[in-house]
Amino acid sequence: MRKRYGDVEALAGLDLAVAPGTVYGLLGPNGAGKSTVVRILSTLTRATAGRATVAGHDVAARPDAVREAIGLAGQHAAVDEKLTGRENLRIFGRLARLGRRGARRRADDLLERFELTEAADRLVSTYSGGMRRRVDLIASLLRAPAVLFLDEPTTGLDPRSRLDIWAIVRELVAEGTTVLLTTQYLDEADHLASAVAVIHHGRVIAEGSPAELKARIGSHVDVEVGGEADLAGAVAVLERLTGGRPAVEDLRIVTGVPGRAPSVPQLVRELDAAGVVVQDVGVRRPSLDDVFLTLTGRTAGTGGAGGGTTGTPQDGPEAQKARRREWSTEGATA
Predict the structure, then answer these.
(1) How far apart are CA 174 and CA 176, in angstroms?
(2) Nearest-CA neighbor of 102 among 142, 59, 153?
């Protein structure tokens, strides 16, 4: 599947296959084309070339059938602030052709299920950001979709609201819904997704469960010694235990562990037996941030998939425009 915007090839060369009843995380820098993938798969825009199917329906040939099978929650809550939460959902239900009575019943059921009944008859303008996102997510569920597209669903939310959205997603998947999730937050994909794709230069460069991807990177052992006289002994112990090549900076030694990392008690025993004075010892398991940085050479704060979690300024418009020439998707299937 390919998508061009003038001279810019936004999507080209990325294949996706999402298992039913799972959360599939799609990670990439801001401006990488994640939202374009969602827009094509949800029939909001047409691909320039290639083929995609969603819930067994060809996106280009049978867009109506695709729309019948999906729900979509975009990056911004699409709710009317001048209406109440209940009124918003009933209107969405009518637009989804549930009928007046069906829309009322479905809206009331979902409001109760997701604990918004008390606020249902207040104007949405009085809602917090987290409540608005919950109403928007509920609106995408009015037709009980087989496939749900969540495009950065928790961007800008506080930690409590993010956890609420995560709980809703887990509940839906447990009931059989398939979720394609794009997110800026790598910890979100780590918590929710059973499979993750990291995209770079328009192709999947790594795919698997979060645990599988982190296992490829390996852990890091960090040791701080008491003095310079302890460095040589500590380096020798770490080389023997980890098989890695330690890096030394001042009195701190860090080494990657390609296989299974030694435990902290084992490290302390071996260093003590070698006569090394130790100030601190730690074993750090890799995160998806480490995976992303290692595979793409990009940090989350410089346009990476976790942008916004580090406080580093995002790339400017020109950098984003140039990056859109690199990133792509082809042959996506949900």
Answers:
(1) 5
(2) 142
